[in-house]
Amino acid sequence: WQGGVRPRRLLGFSPVPTSDADDFTVPEGYETQVLIPWGTPIRPSGPQWRKDGSNSAAEQAEQIGMNHDGMHFFPLGNGPAGSRRGLLVLNHEYVDQDLLFPDGPEEMTAEKVRKALAAHGVSVVEVEQRGDGQWQVVESPRARRVTGSTPVTFSGPVGPDHPALAAANEPMGTLNNCSSGYTPWGTYLACEENWNGYFGTEDPDWEPTPAQARYGISASGFGYRWHEADPRFDLAADPGEINRFGWIVEIDPRNPDAKPVKRTALGRFKHEGCTVTESRGHVVAYSGDDQDGDYIYKFVGKGNWRVHRALGRSPLDHGTLYVARFDDDGSGTWLPLEHGTGPLTTANGFADQADVLLRTREAADAVGATRMDRPEWIAINPKTGDVYCTLTNGSGWDNAVNPRTPNPYGHIISWTEEGGRHTATSFSWDIFVLAGDPAYDEQVDLPQSGIFGSPDGLAFDGDGRMWIQTDVSNSAQNLAQRGYDNIGNNQMLAADPRTGEIRRFLTGPRGAEISGVTFTPDQRTMFVNVQHPGEATTAWGTPSPEDPRAVSNWPDFDPDGRPRSATVVIRRTDGGVIGA
Ligand code: FEO
Ligand code: CA
Ligand code: CA
Ligand code: CA
């Protein structure tokens, strides 16, 4: 701890118990408000949501998308005004096609593909706090949807004219935006995670290249079947289209006319998120590749980011991408993914830096990065500069940084960059907590008020409180033998990183994960996302994918409606700082 003064306690709320109710619970003294559920018009005058799923693709493109995920609040105004009005920008990770269409996805049509694309991407809405404390969406020229069909461009070593990006249609769209980030210059970063699964083909002669196989690209995809109605998603018809995915996408929330830009210098993989900081003028961006056995990366900008900006260049286009090696002795090294360095040579099949970036995973394999238990969010403690990463769960990789084999519960690691400089190429690491239930794993050191599993979302507030969100998959939750039966619904916890104390702050409705968290600058309003309430499951004894309302009908509880992802606004009834 820096400063020498004993800081006050960080966690001042009473923990909530675990829950299996179809409800959203917060501690005593807190209140909640559901904001912008799926289908809400992004301008109050826009098309209203229809609860039978019959909104058209064009209407969906003017409404909040599905499956809210990473999110950031950009204040409008300085001082107290900036905590009462702002742009709320959030990702829509994927779609549930059973809920999206009135008749489900049985028959795939071009209009259904258009609507599914329109429910993906990013929403920008202007929100304002009323006199009674409640938040509302207001008419705004900045309100915007970026969808799977929005024109985009490319920048960095894999530029817009790179032959690998050539395809029949103009460059468009972002898909599977999981976690997110934001930059010191006020832009939003949407991250493309499980983009591989949208593509498929019926062509019996199609086979994946080694690079495509390394990204999990397959003829059947995840079963969206868009390729049946739109050749853009047919791997055999248009092999360049898929190379346009797997990137970090920069969006200027204050300029609705600016094209989103895919920043290729940050690499191509299943980006969970992108956590940006600066170190002596250099921009540094951390990103996990969320796959069992994949890696943690960081990008270090070359030169001072302010100089790049002043010259009209993007600081994210110039720099070095590194991948992490965690050694068993507690030290670590950032390995550069630079063409011509180490094994990344033309003789070894890497043509140039663009090729290294298009095949980031293969490049990272070649330099000897450390396999991890599914790296999810990365967050930086503003009080110490230490970096934390959630490893949600995994097979176990016979290394000290992933100590359990298998690892159904996940863990959180931290590291300190050498000299406290985020540009450093070496670091020391530690395990912050092993998640789970001590009733099933005696290595777990958590009280009942803090048991959790599958950490995913991770963020620090300005006081150095760490916020942990969970994403236990419903199949895992269903398995008592995996030790999840006492843990209940997904939840969010607060931790004191100095003492290691972890305390449950909220629980979500059935079938939902908790994902996405942001604060007003005064930390008196917290926004949290509830994703996929009612996800088809047998966890609550109701095996009914045909009627998800049997699992959850949150937040409307309308017998004729359907469960909807939404943002939840959390405030203290006394107006105090959240968590304190
Ligand atoms: Fe979309 Fe890795 O969670
Ligand atoms: Ca998710
Ligand atoms: Ca996630
Ligand atoms: Ca997850």
Q: Could you say what the CATH topology is called?
A: Neuraminidase
Question: What is the count of helical runs?
Answer: 8
The percent range for strand residues is 25-35%
Which spans of ≥5 residues are poorly predicted at pLDDT below 50? Answer: 538-543
CATH superfamily: TolB, C-terminal domain
Q: Can you summarize the main beta sheet?
A: 9 strands, antiparallel
Helix content: under 10%
End-to-end C-alpha gap: 18 Å
Q: Tally of extended strands?
A: 27
Count up the domains.
Answer: 1
CATH architecture level-2 label: 6 Propeller
Q: What's the CATH first level?
A: Mainly Beta
Query: Strands across the major sheet, in which order?
Result: 12-13-14-15-16-20-19-18-17
Radius of gyration: 22 Å
Overall 3D form: globular
Structural class: mainly beta
Q: Assembly type of the shown chains?
A: single chain
Mean pLDDT: 95
The distinct ligands, each listed once, are: MU-OXO-diiron, calcium ion
Protein name: PhoX family phosphatase
InterPro entries: PhoX, TAT_signal
Organism: Streptomyces marincola
Region (Disordered): 535-564
Outline the secondary-structure elements.
Elements: E1 30-35, H1 57-60, E2 68-75, E3 85-92, H2 97-100, H3 110-118, E4 121-129, E5 135-137, E6 144-146, E7 153-155, E8 177-182, E9 188-192, H4 210-214, E10 248-251, E11 261-263, E12 275-279, E13 282-288, E14 296-301, H5 305-310, E15 319-326, E16 331-336, H6 353-358, H7 360-367, E17 375-380, E18 387-391, E19 411-417, E20 426-434, E21 455-460, E22 466-470, H8 474-477, E23 491-495, E24 502-507, E25 513-519, E26 525-531, E27 566-572
Parallel strand pairs: 7-11
Antiparallel strand pairs: 1-27, 2-3, 3-4, 4-5, 4-6, 8-9, 9-10, 10-11, 12-13, 13-14, 14-15, 15-16, 16-20, 17-18, 18-19, 19-20, 21-22, 22-23, 23-24, 25-26, 26-27
The chain binds MU-OXO-diiron and calcium ion (3 copies).
Protein name: PhoX family phosphatase
Pfam family, one: PhoX
InterPro entries: PhoX, TAT_signal
